[in-house]
Amino acid sequence: MKWIEPQKYLKKLKLDEFPQPDIIQLRYPTLLCHGYGSMSMLMKPSPMHDSCLRLRSFGIQAFAPNIVPYATIEIRASQWAERIAQLQEKYGYKKFNVIAHSMGGLDMRYAIHHLGISSSVASLTTVATPHHGTSLAEIVLTTPELLKEKLNELMNWFGENVFPDQKSNAVAAVEQLTRNYIEETFNPSTPNHEDIQYFSISAGVGKGTKHPLNPILRLQNQLIYQKEGVNDSFVTAESAVWGEHIGEYSLSHLEQIDLQVSKERKPLVNQMWLDIAETLKKNRL
Fold it and tell me: At 24, is the secondary structure helix, strand, or coil?
């Protein structure tokens, strides 16, 4: 009978002196800005709530407030500016590292350039933001007029019930996400600010990749792929690149903010947010 050395197995029981993950110390607190839509507000306090708590678990001071879900960039941007002012007044913060998902990235680019909040923003990291527009918006706008009108009424009614402080306009917001509007109107009038660092995350799943996608999102993923290429079911990987590109991740648009994430794919979501935090730390932000 083979002799088993007990010390070999006892070593596995040895306790680490510091078993918890390292604290990620950033210079500035973090503001998370959500994108277009409000369905997730039925399931959690805010669309970015879980992502916010994840950053807090890293030791980062993070906030994920709500604004109007269905409105134009100009209106949404003004509300993000208000949230920054509210946090500054409450906690005495001077600047924020802003992390914005989807349309939230366009909101913040607009707020920085047009609303005079550049002195309150140290960095802007965008996650799957359509910096060059998305063909999904164009597909939505080709819906027959009567149906589009009814959908607009339904979405506005829903949006104004979950966020009654501001009138919604779902179709007007979608019109601002088209490739034509972003490339010909928004981008030329909204350049980056020289004193702010810009980072971006892109993503690709489903058609054209080996990465899985929820069947519910498969049709729009394929339609976007036919027009633009690899995408996360809402925005192409190419359109999401802006400033310093942190990386491309095999996560759907919803998975990025902890929606419809299977147990097996949760480590991918965690890694993306960890990479964002480490990038901010590396740049002394």
Answer: coil
Helix axes 73-91, 103-114, angle to 10 degrees: 70
Q: Stretch 188-216: mean pLDDT, rounded?
A: 96
19 — pLDDT class (breaks 50, 70, 90):
confident
Which neighbouring-strand residues pair with 203? 249
Convert the pLDDT of each residue in 132-164 to its tens digit.
999 999 999 998 787 778 777 777 776 777 777
Q: Which domains does the chain have, with CATH numbers?
A: 23-282 (3.40.50.1820)
Rounded CA-CA distance 207/72 in Å is: 30
Phi/psi at 201 (nearest 5 deg)? Answer: -120, 135
Residues in the chain: 285
Distance CA 127, CA 248 (A): 10
Burial degree of 24 (CB within 10 A; 0-12, 13-18, 19+): middle
